[in-house]
Amino acid sequence: MTAFKLVVVSAGLSKPSSTRLLADRLAESTVRQLGATGRTVEVAVVELRDLATEMANNFVTGFPGAALREAVRAVTEADALIAVTPIFTASYSGLFKSFFDAIDHDALTGKPVLIAATGGTPRHSLALEHAVRPLFAYLRAVVVPTAVYAATDDWGAAGDRHTDGLPHRIDRAAGELAGLLAGRGPEAPGLPEQVVPFAEQLAALRV
Amino acid sequence: MSSMQFGIFTVGDVTPDPTTGRTPTEHERIKAMVAIARKAEEVGLDVFATGEHHNPPFVPSSPTTMLGYIAAQTDRIILSTSTTLITTNDPVKIAEDFAMLQHLAEGRVDLMMGRGNTGPVYPWFGQDIRQGIPLAIENYALLHQLWREDVVDWQGRFRTPLQSFTATPRPLDGVPPFVWHGSIRSPEIAEQAAYYGDGFFANNIFWPKEHFQKLIELYRARYAHYGHGTPEQAYVGLGGQVFMRKNSQDAVREFRPYFDNAPVYGHGPSLEEFTEQTPLTVGSPQEVIEKTLAFRESFGDYQRQLFLMDHAGLPLKTVLEQLDLLGEEVVPVLREEFAKGRPAEVPDGPTHAARVAAAAAGKTSEKTSEKTDEKVEVAK
Predict the structure, then answer these.
(1) Residue ranges for chain B with pLDDT beneath 70
(2) Hey, are the CB atoms on B156 and A198 less than 8 Å from each other?
(3) Beta carbons of B113 and B138 less than 8 angstroms apart
(4) Distances (CA, A) of A177 to A31, A108, A192, B293
(5) What is the C-alpha separation between B164 and A200, in angstroms, rounded?
(6) At A193, phi and psi to the nearest 5?
(7) Which one, of A23, A19, A18, A21, lies nearest residue A8 by Cα?
(8) What is the SS3 assignment for B361?
(9) For residue B219, what is the DSSP state?
(10) Most distant pair of Cα atoms in chain B: their distance
(11) What is the mean pLDDT of residues A2-26?
(12) How many domains is chain A partitioned into structurally?
């Protein structure tokens, strides 16, 4: 069976970054859980840091450069998306939003998406729910129920009585994404663009 | 006139000259546009086209007024638009204004339909921007009819109905002005141009070519589908923008401050990146020739090439020097080179005389076929 195309978008800024680390853990878990059902996955990572200048240029010129165009194409053609951002000033980072501003608003319609974020303190974890999830709701993506937030402390802590630890949450979210994918076949590449014949365009206006 | 048409198009922006900090007055800019049009004819270009805008810092809100004035001061050059707002102008007024201009200019008139890129123009003129494409389709359907039928009964969604209406004056020699449909992204407009057998102008000046190849391929395929000829016989127009000096380094040195500060170019990619990704050429006439000739490889043999020359706040004197270079060193070579290997069935750029002759010979491509087939798939 053809491999699923999983694209991981990371808006981490430092190298290495904990945002990328979280993104990789999520991808790895998704691949493992799909693998257990006999499905293979090709993972491609889009590091938004590398596209920062092209994104700024895209705003100014109105057209994307070659690398940004390629990243947008990869995300548009993906079977599923893992999108991870650091939380800045109570929301997704500007870099993260800039990338999704460059994508056609229909590009993610119906696409399974796992959202995740990193932050210095657990107090901002709901930014995933009040900022990141609505962004993808607008784009009509299918976002899995579990959004994974990793505060700095999570990397050195186990779960407690009330909350599962980070590895467990990663597996749960990835399992949800894998579950969404398992019921689907990979998307056929290069779906044709429909042109509405002119007679129909005229008829719609009753001219 | 040789087979391909070369000309200039102007946005009509009032932009400060970044090297002096001086902003021309509206009056100076309007007179400069006239001087540029006259110069275009003087140096042997075929077309002068003006934009239409209804907000500062742009001056050309009334294109037929300007083109009528230019018509009186020129003898040969075709007067056109880039673009005429088919969405927010009343199609009845477009029909009348351009028919009048056509008479005054002895047929040296065509026009390019566009939807405009300034959102508030829609509400300012009582329209809804979300209806942009339907407005373009319905308004043009009416305009097309007004130019071809003496008495029109009309009812549509966007305009008050017409009963027994005759747009006057009737088109010169009974042949309406040729129409281009300009678009930078909408397949619906390529389809519209193909349906009527009109021209399609891809204003490719700010975007990479791959994007326009798809649109032009679609237009050509649909032009043939509607029975107007082969895909190669469709009418394609392209833009381009240049700054030239004899010596390439001089051109780059002189234009860089204009590029860096221009409202449409500046503060984004470098001049070098921008010239690599778009048709902008800053260099010697030879470099302009090479870049323009390459358009044919991407888009096929085409009919009209328009250059944007008065951009980025360049002073009038400089623009006139640019036109000298364009007319003397670039266009003659382009005419010769584009003529080489151009198949005989590829049509010339449209002129009133040729259209009158074609109409008389009964082989005008005016009539559209009645094919109404299933959804058409075009590879993405």
Answers:
(1) 1-2, 363-380
(2) no
(3) no
(4) 10, 15, 27, 50
(5) 27
(6) -85, 130
(7) A23
(8) coil
(9) H
(10) 63
(11) 96
(12) 1
Closest residue in A to B276 (Cα–Cα): A65
Tokens 């048709």 found at = B279
Q: Are A152 and A121 in contact (CB under 8 A)?
A: yes
Q: Where are the beta strands (DSSP E) in chain A?
A: 4-10, 41-47, 80-88, 91-92, 112-119, 142-143, 148-151, 193-195
Residues 6+ apart with CB under 8 A from B19: B257, B258
Q: Token pair 């070519």 is at which residue?
A: B209
Chain B nearest CA to A77, separation (Å): 12
Q: Cα A60–A61–A67 angle (5° rounding)?
A: 100
3 state DSSP class of B179 = strand
Inspect the interface and report whether the beta carbons of B191 and A60 lie closer than 8 Å: no
Q: What tens digit of pLDDT does each residue of B94-115 get?
A: 999 999 999 999 999 999 999 9
Q: Which of A45-54, A61-70, A134-143 has the lowest mean pLDDT?
A: A61-70
A80 CA to chain B: closest CA distance, Å? 21
Provide CB contacts within 8 A for A179, sequence distance 6+.
Answer: none
What local confidence, expressed as pLDDT, does residue A177 receive?
98
Note the pLDDT tens digit of each residue in A103-141: 999 999 999 999 999 999 999 999 999 999 999 999 999
Structure tokens at A86: 């650091």
Q: For residue A158, what pLDDT is reported?
A: 85
What is d(CA B170, CA B165) in angstroms, rounded to the nearest whole number? 12
Q: Give CA–CA dist B319/B305, Å, rounded.
A: 18
ipTM tops 0.90: no
CB contact under 8 A, A197 and B192: no
Q: Which of B359, B299, B355 is nearest to B178 (CA)?
A: B355
* pLDDT of res. B1: 46
**Sign, Cα dihedral of B52, B132, B369, B238:** positive
Q: What is the pLDDT of residue A185?
A: 75
Cβ pair B4, B304 in contact under 8 A: yes
Q: What tokens were used for A194?
A: 């429909």
Answer whether B323's CB lies under 8 Å from B25's CB: no
Predicted structure pTM score: 0.89
pLDDT of residue B377: 46
B192 interface with A at CB cutoff 8 Å: yes
For B216-230, b/e burial (b = at least 16 CB within 10 A) is bbbbbbbbbbbebbe
Contacts of B138 in chain A (CB under 8 A): 205, 207
Regarding beta strands A80-88 and A4-10, do their DSSP bridges make them parallel or antiparallel, or are they unpaired?
Answer: parallel
CATH number of A141's domain = 3.40.50.360
Closest CA to B210 of B278, B290, B307: B278
Cβ contact, residue pair B376, A63, below 8 Å: no
A207, B277: Cβ pair inside 8 Å? no
SS3 B92: helix
Query: Which pLDDT belongs to residue A191?
Result: 44
Q: How far is B195 from chain A (nearest CA, A)?
A: 7
Domain that holds residue A142: 4-206
Q: How confident is the model at residue A207 (pLDDT cuts 50, 70, 90)?
A: low
Pairing between strand A112-119 and A142-143? parallel
Higher pLDDT, B376 or A30: A30
